[in-house]
Amino acid sequence: MSSAGAASISTTVTLKRLPALPWLLSLATGVAGALALLPVQVLLGTSPFWDSPRGIVGGAWGDMLQASSGYVAFVRDCWRWPLFQVAGLGPNGANVLFTDSVPVVALLGRLLFQATGRVVPLYGLWSGLCLVGMGLTFTGLVRALGARSLAAVVAASVIGVSMPALIGRWGHLSLMAQALLPLALAIYVRLRAALQPRACTVFAWSSGICVGSLLVHPYLFLMVGGIMIAAILQAGTDRRMPWQAAAAVLAGLAAVTGGTMLAMGYGTSSGAESDLGFGVYSANLLSLFLPYDVVLPSGAAYATDGTGGQYEGAAFVGFGVLLLMIAGWQSLAEYLARGARRHPWLLFVVAGFLVLAISNEVYLGSVHLLSIPLPKSVLWAAGIFRSSGRFAWVAMYLAAALAIAAAAQRKQSGLVLLLAAAIQCVTVMPLRQRAWASAAGMPASVLDRAAWMSVLPGADQLVVDPPFGCLPKEASSLPLIKAAVELQLMASQAGVPTNTLYAARTAPDCMVPRLTRRSLVAYLRPVTQPPESTCQVGPLMTVCSAIPQALPASLATIAPDDKP
User: Fold this and answer.
1) Which of 59, 149, 178, 429 has the fewest CB atoms in 10 Å of its CB?
2) pLDDT confidence of residue 556
């Protein structure tokens, strides 16, 4: 017997004797991935980073401030209906679903606040758990596909926590929870393998993960929901479940998710997304096969982006996964051929997500290949999912898992799997370094946070004129836009209501509320000094109050150069 064969038998025996070993390895890999991404103080929520957080994904300067402001406002508020509605943000309150505050984290934060009286920062732990969850769920998917060797487990866990689309998402806290996607795919594989799945079991799994994903982010819910619907329809098509039972499961799933959405407040949106969206924040035809950012040997930079917004569709599988695809191309081709016959509904769902991700404006790198005219009604409906490029993640995770499973079928595959894991890990180091630098450095703020936080608790409201939604959106107004978002966060941290609101799908309200003696007013426009007020003029704004002592000692610091 060859040494490679003996080693394979040895590892198989070890895994049988220690069935928890794959999960312990995946858990350890996830923890290591979290510690390699962010400093411990950031993970524990004790770092000043969370006073004014920043990430590395496009627009992260505002996304993290937006999420944090919604979280703090929700934690401090009382229980309302719908569940995630809060007062004090915007002229009429807001729903933290639209501040991307990760509803499940906000719920836990409120319970802790009511128990301790302290606002406990949880987003660091959440970010770490997203990495740990990815190590576990991606390993579970690969094992469900039949790759159960020790090398496959190591490769799956390392590659899972080293996916460029995951690391590069640092800054969009809710979408760090991509572990839900391999979990949904693993559940699909398990349900597909069942000879006669019980309707109650299928309903429990599908409704559980759909409600869970709703408590994180609607895009993840749509992807997870599509996978679960494919599992139910496939069971009915194969007659492994009577069609009446499959229809009942679908009806029950619709009722549970619809009721959850109603309770959470998904119907409270007061506005639609911008016309700029669908076809802009899309996936490139090269997204799965090339990294989003490429630095050529000459030093020139190149982005797999034809619109300026295709970072939303960044879905590169990674160089390690590409190696596995090449090494195991024959087994992978057999997997795909069998999959087309055995999983037509899943294939339909994944293909549909890819079409939606690519959109009607088709780009190959920077080349605009095709523009498909669509009726206005279709464009309006598609605009609800304006960041459609994210839907490519389903194909990305499925392709990566199939590549590992296919490579594991080859003889003496252990070395190739471990080499691919090492390559995947090394090639995402620049992304990890960027994330670490963003979290380890001092927060880059437009405003003097210490000065503002010293006076905000004494105000009965912070009035921003004009509020965020009414500011001009050209590049020259970027410092004012950042100032408005920072004021929103500081107001929520100080427990002071404010009229400014940066939130998705929210119509702007430019009316300025009635002022009181203790109002603190930040004018983000030219203004003459109001009567009976003392004002301080800074480089970005004029701040006024009827009480001279209520003005911040300084208004602004140097504005950072990053773009929204």
Assistant:
1) 429
2) 67
For 300, other C-beta atoms within 10 Å of its C-beta total 8
Q: For residues 133 and 159, is the Cβ–Cβ distance under 8 A?
A: no
Q: Chain-centre distance of CA 469, in angstroms?
A: 23
Residue 555's CB is within 10 A of a number of other CB atoms, namely: 21
For 464, the enclosing helix (H) or strand (E) is strand 461-465
Residue 255 exposure: Cα atoms within 13 Å on the Cβ side:
7
The position carrying tokens 């090269």 is 286
Q: Return the pLDDT at 294.
A: 67
Residue 23 identity:
W
End-to-end CA distance of the chain: 61
d(CA 105, CA 101): 8
Is residue 297 very low, low, confident or very high in pLDDT (cuts 50, 70, 90)?
low
DSSP state of 447: B
Q: Are 556 and 447 contacting, i.e. CB atoms less than 8 angstroms apart?
A: yes
Say whether 406 sits in a helix, a strand or coil.
helix
Q: What's the rounded Cα separation, in Å, for the pair 229 and 187?
A: 12
- Residue 339 CB-half CA count within 13 A: 18
The residue ranges of DSSP E strands in 30-180, in sequence order, are 85-86, 94-95
Report the C-alpha gap between 69 and 56 in whole angstroms.
Answer: 19
Could you tell me which of 269, 192, 168 has the C-alpha nearest to residue 501? 269
Structure tokens at 78: 């009382």
Please report the beta strands in 166-212, taking only residues with DSSP state E, as ranges in sequence order.
none
Highest-confidence segment of 388-402, 407-421, 434-448, 507-521: 388-402
Euclidean distance between CA atoms 63 and 438, whole angstroms: 14
Q: Which of 14, 41, 33, 281 is nearest to 156 (CA)?
A: 33
pLDDT at res. 346: 97
Residue with tokens 């960041």: 387
Mean pLDDT computed over 193-220: 97
d(CA 13, CA 466): 68
Cβ neighbours, 10 Å, residue 16: 10
**DSSP-assigned beta bridge partners for residue 226:** none
Residue closest to 355 by CA, chosen among 389, 386, 384, 383: 389
d(CA 266, CA 70): 15
Q: Give the tokens for residue 167.
A: 């690391």
- Looking at residue 170, its pLDDT comes to 95
**Other CB atoms within 10 Å distance of the CB of residue 296:** 8
Q: Please give the Cα distance from 420 to 403 (Å, whole number).
A: 11
Q: Where are the domains of the chain?
A: 46-121+444-550, 185-412
Q: Note whether 86 and 80 are within 8 A (CB).
A: yes
